[in-house]
């Protein structure tokens, strides 16, 4: 099955289903499927709207009902748009459909938007008390594009303050619970978006990913998380954390939804000089319905499994879930080999130095002068100091201090400059590996969702949890995380996600593979317990 | 004294931008200046002592000055006259209502990103080439970080270790009244950056307001080598830079509006000493003469301290030039080097220049002041004329347009520097405001040279042309001013005048030859000034002296 002549180490082939592997069957053909593949909520919505089976208003109402029911347990949203505002947009859509007017590809799609992405009609706090009640005078480009595609923004989702954290406990406002186990975190920093999509409070959601903030919560919450190539989606209107790493990403309950969402927000933006001018392919064309799949639909695809990500420090149950997913890909026709990225472990320190350095600069604008929290003072320095001291949370302050230190005269060469050199090494090693492989595979996180409070006093342990994802940001590559199994825990198990990393601007391939993977994944239903009783189909 | 800031942006509306003000209680935003006021008192004493001792022993002091050498370098900020700001599409108009030309980008709102206006690169390349610099084919922007209320993002987008241009020079011809001479001053670097906003201090000083109209306007920072030795050299360097940016059309170079700002670094050392003395920076120089005077004052201050064994009182600091008092005072002392924590601006891609791009701009450069001066010199003009004509780009353009079709160079220069300049000065007009065109000046010169009109009539026509416009030919026709050059006709008039004034003729012939002027005047009156003076005098003399 291995095509390489280099006789790489053979991967463990799937044997019997273990307790950690509830849903992977050995055959890719869904003859004995016990649960249907996840439907695309976007395509389903569109179909029922266009055929006039349902109205946009009815769809919106059903989501708002569920949101209202689940939100007290989850706290995914920092701000929910008033019902009237949402229903009014839905009604306008219904009228358009009634008049046979053209509607956009996201018509009637209810979207959650991470609160560090600017919205004209809602506050945008980035999870910080410093920006409490701050209303931007403009929509982020991604949000503008969503609206132009017919989407309805439901509300703003919770996050670690300014995206700095991996649990969403770092929000200045509230702690979001994981829909699979309310005593656990949803991951972070886009925990609110992940939880909201997982609990079907909205159909899809935008997040942002600086070091894994879309992918790790997707894994923790059992949803699809897509981190696009740096430059694929405009950052205009994304409250900056670390500009050279920040990317707006997509959450969906299916690969198709994440891909269709990406389609509508991608493309060059004259307001973001780092956005790419490359043409945006039609990601949807990659989605082949299951009935048309051949027995080895991924034949010829070369999959590299990153050895360093399946070693010490990663939960064994996570490892076996990911290995099972790899076996599944193998059965779909992929040729699998193990690849080594010796620079992998350098990614974490390099990432933290660069991200914190940039953040110390990006957060300088919050000085209490023009907007945001302001604490009056006798003189200028106390105005600055007190406004920032009271506005920022402790994690943010720590990161600003560390970033400021790393950029200081005398330390710049030892920290920032060296980290940039490491970044180049990492980028090159990924390039090399992706020249030999179509995609690379790793877990999305070393473990499943933590208990709330578990990592709160151990920032280093929390930082270490980012090991699987930060390298991808340093290399600027696209990555897709999708649920592949469960680990025991909570009421119905805790989801595990695996990460597929593609070459720059090759989101198409990731989506194509992901779509086939999830459709052939059997007996797995990623409906969390919090809505399991009402969500039957 | 509680500091209160008016809240600027609590709602998502652009309308509120015009009220983005920061207010402060007394003195707050000038905390650095306030602490300096304490030092100013002792400083004041020093100044008085300095002035007194300067007066008392002025000749002795002149001698003293000769033992020292000043080392002067200048940092100039040139505001580029691009239609829009450096990183957003806001226009910039000097003097506009506060906060009427701002947007999320230049206000530094969360999520806003800079996008470089490509004109900034073009202008920077123009200036770099004009300053004989080496251009960096690949440079980048960096963030310079510090907090101040006029700096919306908490950092200034600038260039740090790789400026777009470096290692050039500027040719300067010193004015004759200051001894003349040619100088070549080194240019260390030219880099691009953005301007900050402005703080507006209210009359009673109880609060300050921030005007962000200027925030994000593109600047070039031009750093000279420490090649200047006197206030005059420094002022002329600055004037030449102003000329250069005006010639290039990249800035209006207006010092009063702050489009051209000079910060001077100055130190002194005993002649013969190799190492530099302690460097002092002078700010708030709003004219070339203040550059020159501030430097001369500062040299005197430092030399006095040095000669009195108080060289240790010359400290690294920033001093303000006070125009009213004609002195420099301490603004802030430097405590070590400020750490701006520069790092590459991640929001902007690197700046890559191709050879073709640079060559294209190089080929499109206009004739620059230095080239113009050398060309005028070759035309045979004196250095005084050269400097006068080349100093102002519009005057130079007028001159060039006049001599282009072939007008006499020296005459054209004389007319422009004489009657035209005087008229402009009286009427407070620039050369572009007067109605006279270079073409008509050429016609005028040709008409006089060709004898169609006299010089006197030429002058009259000139004023008419400058005030009302029109053509030389039209005016001559309209006023019937064509010179009489036919000897027979002039003879006829001479005869008539002599016949009409027999008494004067008799006196003349009796020896009162001064009366020639009287006759010439009579004839001129008769011909309305049109008689060719040379012919007239020749014929008149013949007739007067003819034996009757
Ligand atoms: Zn602007």
UniProtKB/TrEMBL annotation, chain A:
GO BP, one example? glutaminyl-tRNAGln biosynthesis via transamidation
Tell me which family the UniProt entry assigns to this protein: Belongs to the amidase family. GatA subfamily.
Q: What is the lineage of its organism?
A: Eukaryota, Viridiplantae, Streptophyta, Embryophyta, Tracheophyta
Gene3D superfamilies tied to this protein: Amidase signature (AS) domain
Instruction: Write out the entry's keywords from A to Z.
Output: ATP-binding, Chloroplast, Ligase, Mitochondrion, Nucleotide-binding, Plastid, Protein biosynthesis
InterPro entries, from UniProt? Amidase, Amidase_CS, Amidase_dom, AS_sf, GatA
Q: Where is the composition biased (Low complexity)?
A: 7-34
MF (Gene Ontology)? ATP binding; glutaminyl-tRNA synthase (glutamine-hydrolyzing) activity; hydrolase activity, acting on carbon-nitrogen (but not peptide) bonds, in linear amides
**What name goes with this protein?**
Glutamyl-tRNA(Gln) amidotransferase subunit A, chloroplastic/mitochondrial
Q: Which reaction does it catalyse?
A: L-glutamyl-tRNA(Gln) + L-glutamine + ATP + H2O = L-glutaminyl-tRNA(Gln) + L-glutamate + ADP + phosphate + H(+)
Automatic annotation (TrEMBL), chain B:
Q: Where in the cell is it found?
A: Mitochondrion; Plastid, Chloroplast
Domain of life of the organism in this record? Eukaryota
Q: Name one GO molecular function term.
A: ATP binding
**Which ranges of the sequence are coiled-coil?**
none
Is Flavoprotein among this UniProt entry's keywords? Answer: no
Which residues are in the Asn/Gln amidotransferase domain? Answer: 397-544
Keywords associated with the record:
ATP-binding, Chloroplast, Ligase, Mitochondrion, Nucleotide-binding, Plastid, Protein biosynthesis
Enzyme Commission number? 6.3.5.-
Gene Ontology terms describing biological process? glutaminyl-tRNAGln biosynthesis via transamidation; mitochondrial translation
Q: Which reaction does it catalyse?
A: L-glutamyl-tRNA(Gln) + L-glutamine + ATP + H2O = L-glutaminyl-tRNA(Gln) + L-glutamate + ADP + phosphate + H(+); L-aspartyl-tRNA(Asn) + L-glutamine + ATP + H2O = L-asparaginyl-tRNA(Asn) + L-glutamate + ADP + phosphate + 2 H(+)
- List, alphabetically, the Pfam families matched: GatB_N (PF02934), GatB_Yqey (PF02637)
Q: What is its main location?
A: mitochondrion
Instruction: Name the GO cellular-component terms.
Output: chloroplast; glutamyl-tRNA(Gln) amidotransferase complex; mitochondrion
Q: What class of enzyme is it?
A: ligase
Concerning PROSITE patterns, the annotation shows: GATB
Subunit annotation: Subunit of the heterotrimeric GatCAB amidotransferase (AdT) complex, composed of A, B and C subunits.
Functional description taken from the UniProt entry: Allows the formation of correctly charged Gln-tRNA(Gln) through the transamidation of misacylated Glu-tRNA(Gln) in chloroplasts and mitochondria. The reaction takes place in the presence of glutamine and ATP through an activated gamma-phospho-Glu-tRNA(Gln).
Which family is annotated?
Belongs to the GatB/GatE family. GatB subfamily.
Write down what this protein is called: Glutamyl-tRNA(Gln) amidotransferase subunit B, chloroplastic/mitochondrial
Give the source species.
Sesamum indicum (Oriental sesame)
Q: Which gene encodes it?
A: LOC105171814
